[in-house]
Amino acid sequence: MRTSSESPDLTPCFQTAEDRWQAVAGRDRRADASFVYAVKTTGIYCRPSCSAKLAKREHVRFFTTPSDAERAGFRACKRCHPKDRSLSEQHQDAVARACRLLETVDETLGLDELAETVSLSPSHLHRVFKAATGLTPKQYATAHRAQRLRDQIGGNTTITTAALNAGFRSQSRLYETSTKTLGMTPTQVRRKGKNAVIRFAVGECSLGSILVAASEVGVCAISLGDDPAVLVKELEDRFSLAELIGGDASFETHVAQAIALIELPATGLKLPLDIQGTAFQQRVWKLLTRIPCGQTTTYTELAEQLGKPEAVRAVASACAANQIAIAIPCHRVVRRDGSLAGYRWGVERKAALLQLEQRPDEAVNSPKSSR
User: Which domains does the chain have, with CATH numbers?
Assistant: First the structure.
């Protein structure tokens, strides 16, 4: 699957009173599932998006749930009906149901049929699904089938059986899409990359050594470390039976682009990516590519954007599983208190990357590469 950087629409957490007041003042529908507000002079509580006349700030109180507001003596607004499910909650439910359907049926389920099942129009479902997951329904289904296929073909099952179990209606259909979904053919995946070609090169940057590797689909690994030999060994272990080609002078331009992304983060990466992971991991990684350079988000905020506020640990695990440093910027995710959590390539490098992004127009070190 190929991705490119794009500007995000990060959903706030609405944790502070100031954030909540701004949501009320802006009638922000995204906040409807997070809290209600009450007006002391009227004794009524409302959704943040209620169209009622805006009360003075000093007359407003915030409550996490309608029940909290009612226990404090307030009654529900008859205009916005805050006790009913909010539109955003309805959308989250529809997306969750659509995800479950896409995970359990074969590849013939189309957008129209999916939309009818969850009681939304096709265009509306497409829009809210992508907003919640970072993927279109078709991309989500493809990613999930690819993961099921990887799980199946790792054992003794024939590729034909694995394809049918994963939701592909025929083996020919599988081979038509396998290179895009797996980065290599099913047979190559089973044989840990046998007959697949992975090109790579190693360079040096201000953060130490950097390795970039790519399949026929796109960049499948960007690794950082102190020892180039260790980075190469990790790549060999991951694709133990693939044909690894290093020392290719033409490929070293990929390393130069990755180094430029470190030293001058605002330049962005123009290379296609070969992202291999579960459907959930791909949803998280897609959201990571939307975090603007120089900004951060939290694991909690990412979980809320996915419509799974309880999945903070799963989001953290997906960030930790990322194999493509910088291009999928998991370094831009921090704890809720702003402190730095773990990072596959070292917390010190995470801090350095964030510091570099605070001055994106200033080169810190001249990029260089080596064979």
Answer: 17-32+34-76 (3.40.10.10), 86-186 (1.10.10.60), 197-262 (3.30.160.70), 279-357 (1.10.10.10)
* Active site residues per annotation: 46, 330
How many whole angstroms separate alpha carbon 306 and alpha carbon 303? 5
User: Per-10-residue mean pLDDT for the chain, 371 residues long?
Assistant: 33 75 89 90 94 94 93 94 76 82 70 86 85 76 66 51 50 47 48 67 92 89 93 87 80 87 81 80 88 89 83 85 92 87 90 83 41 34
| Beta bridge partner(s), residue 297 | 333
Taking CA 254 as the corner, what is the angle to CA 209 and CA 361, rounded to the nearest 5 degrees? 75
Per-residue pLDDT, 43? 96
Residues 6+ apart with CB under 8 A from 171: 159, 160, 163
pLDDT value for 147? 62
Q: Is the dihedral of CA 326, 96, 68, 73 positive or negative?
A: positive
Query: Tokens standing for 242?
Result: 């693939």
What pLDDT does residue 21 have? 95
Q: State phi, psi for 342 to the nearest 5 degrees.
A: -65, 160
Do residues 217 and 179 lie in contact, with contact meaning Cβ atoms separated by under 8 Å?
yes
Residue of 267, 261, 285 whose CA lies nearest to 353: 261
* Chain centroid offset of residue 48 CA: 27
CB atoms under 10 Å from CB of 231, counted, come to: 24
**Following CA atoms 260, 264, 265, 270 in sequence, which dihedral angle do they give, to the nearest 10 degrees?**
-40
Evaluate whether 36 touches 45 at the Cβ level (below 8 Å).
yes
361, 321 in Cβ contact below 8 A? Answer: no
Query: Is 158 strand, coil or helix?
Result: coil
The model's pTM is: 0.52
30-52 exposure pattern, b = at least 16 Cβ within 10 A, e = fewer? bbbbbbbbbbeeeebbbbbbbee
Amino acid at 300: T
